[in-house]
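Class prep. Sample record?

___
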Amino acid sequence: MQEKETTNNCDFTDVFNAPKKGRIIALDLGMKKIGVAISDELQITVRPLTVIKRTAWKKVLKQINDYIENFDAVALVLGLPLEFEGGESEMTIEARRLAKNFSLSIKIPVFLQDERVSTYEARGNLWKSGANEKKIRETLDAEAAAIILRDFIEQNKPERGRLVPE
């Protein structure tokens, strides 16, 4: 077995090392589709970017790496689908596995963000905006990724007076 030296060994929960400036990409991971969202360079606004089909790992990695390069992103955030009461599910384990795979394969830090109810909020936002059911199905995952990214940025703003972990 070939050993691979990695340059990106970030602890996924260590948000204290999250970049404060530069574009961040977020992913809402699903079994069939992956929603992609991006922030602006000052991390003030976020927007849904696209939905990609979840296929073989190398193809997904290439697509995400292309977005990272094209937008000069400084971090990648993956939604962590915890159960409503905070427990872990098969999808939580899958998200952690993919976070590790990304961290071994890309040069920017990878973070996990609790995504409980992001899909429900995204559906509500799209519905309120007047989107029909077809439009909701097409854009739901990207909208959820934008919510995950917004929550990540809000949680990690310096002016929130974050506490240092024990």
